[in-house]
Specification:
Helix content: 10-25%
Shape: globular
Distance between the termini: 64 Å
Radius of gyration: 25 Å
Number of helices: 8
Low-confidence stretches: 1-24
Length: about 400
């Protein structure tokens, strides 16, 4: 009887689920795919089901497709990382406007509104199709990153007026890296300390447009920093003429450092009036299309504004940087803050992978700090894996890319 009891206990133990092996270890927390091959078919559904108040990155991978949605990330969904399959493959678009007779509030009209902190976007095109379709105003936002520690990496932002609105409060930080931003009027605006790192600005207004229109509150530490920027335009870029910016509200701050301008910038550089007097509007080491230094000696320092009573008020802004001053505009200084935030490290790509194919068996060496891998068949995504090998059909070309802890796709 005792022997039979032991046997029954052993049998019952064998049927207890082993959670260490039975729970699948996915590379991404969920996948959005319009063709039904993911967990959701819309991006907003994936966001709605994401955990609240997460302390760790929650990775949403978006497969190739054109997603016609208005996306809202609420304040209680921090740490969402939206990873697109590629900026040429994933497009999120809507066509609402924030100006004119059919205007909606900015939070409602922007194609994507990020209300949470520590959000990360990669490999996505954000479009307001009103702007791209008409190439005219009114305000039509593609993306609004309202809060602190938001990152936009390897993305496109497309519209005409007010394409991208940055942080909503003083000294909140946004980091924008390797992005393509298109517009014609005030298409980068808002406030916060915002670092644009190696971005391309595409000007789609032939003449009389403005790039930035910030409204920095007094006490802002750095303002807008555009570093290693390329300014270009459709057709012959030299035929397009654009001001670097104009002063929207409060005490605007913006600097362009190490810029290549393929378009024509007026000698004055900046537009001399709007609704405020800037604190600093300056550019340093600006080059033309042939990397020849531009003469910056005629950049304006005097601005004026007209009050509600019709009075004209003049003020002076800093209009130049010394080499020592320009050297202070580093990612660490501008983005660090008291929490020593390092957004460039979050964007860091893991190294390229050399894979081998042997009789239908694809394998590669593990990559340090990789949470998993994406396998591509003939340059199209095939699958993801947390292992370092997979059985694949013969007769195709394969590549493998590592995925970091933050979801950044490797080289």
């Amino acid at each position: 009887m005792r022997k039979l009891l032991i046997i029954l206990i052993l049998i019952s133990i064998s049927f207890i689920p082993n959670h260490a092996t039975s729970v699948k270890n996915h590379v991404f927390d969920c996948i959005v795919a319009q063709d039904g091959t993911g967990n959701y078919t819309t991006i907003q559904d994936a966001i709605d089901q994401a955990p609240k108040n997460s302390k760790h990155p929650y990775l949403i991978f978006i497969k190739a497709g054109h997603y016609h949605e208005h996306i809202n990330i609420p304040t209680n969904k921090p740490m969402l990382h939206l990873i697109g399959q590629g900026q040429e493959l994933v497009r999120i678009s809507d066509d609402r406007v924030s100006g004119g007779p059919n205007a909606s509030p900015v939070d409602v009209a922007a194609t994507v509104v990020s209300n949470g902190t520590d959000e990360y976007f990669e490999g996505i095109t954000f479009e307001n199709s009103w702007g791209t379709r008409h190439n005219e105003g009114p305000q039509a936002l593609a993306l609004y990153t309202k809060e602190d520690r938001n990152i936009v990496n390897k993305c496109k932002m497309l519209s005409f007026q007010d394409t991208y609105r940055t942080a909503n409060e003083i000294n909140q930080r946004n980091y924008v890296k390797d992005c393509f931003i298109q517009g014609g009027i005030d298409f980068i605006y808002g406030q916060g300390n915002v670092y644009f790192d190696h971005c391309t600005l595409n000007i789609v207004k032939k003449d009389g447009g403005w790039i930035v229109a910030p409204k920095h509150m007094p006490g802002t530490t750095w303002g807008y920093v555009l570093k290693n920027t390329i300014i270009t335009a459709p057709g012959n870029p030299k035929d397009t003429r654009v001001w670097l910016g104009r002063p929207w509200l409060h005490s605007p701050m913006a600097v362009f450092i190490d810029t290549q301008s393929k378009v024509t910038i007026p000698d004055s550089g900046w537009y001399d009036h709007m609704a405020s007097i800037p604190k600093i509007y300056a550019d340093y080491n600006t080059m033309d299309a042939n990397n020849k230094p531009l003469d910056l000696s005629h950049r304006i320092c005097m601005y004026y504004m007209i009050t509600e009573k019709g009075d004209t008020i003049w003020g002076k802004a800093k209009n130049h940087l010394t080499s020592e001053e320009a050297a202070q505009y580093t990612i660490s200084n501008v983005m660090g803050g008291i929490d020593h935030w390092k957004p460039d490290m979050i964007c860091r790509q893991l190294p390229a992978i050399k894979c081998n194919l042997d009789r239908g068996h694809l394998f590669w060496k593990p990559v340090n700090q990789a949470r998993g891998y994406i396998i591509y068949q003939d340059n199209k995504m095939l699958s993801t894996s947390t292992a370092t090998s997979i059985v694949v059909p013969k007769g195709h070309q394969y590549t493998v890319k590592a995925v970091s802890y933050n979801g950044t796709i490797g080289l």
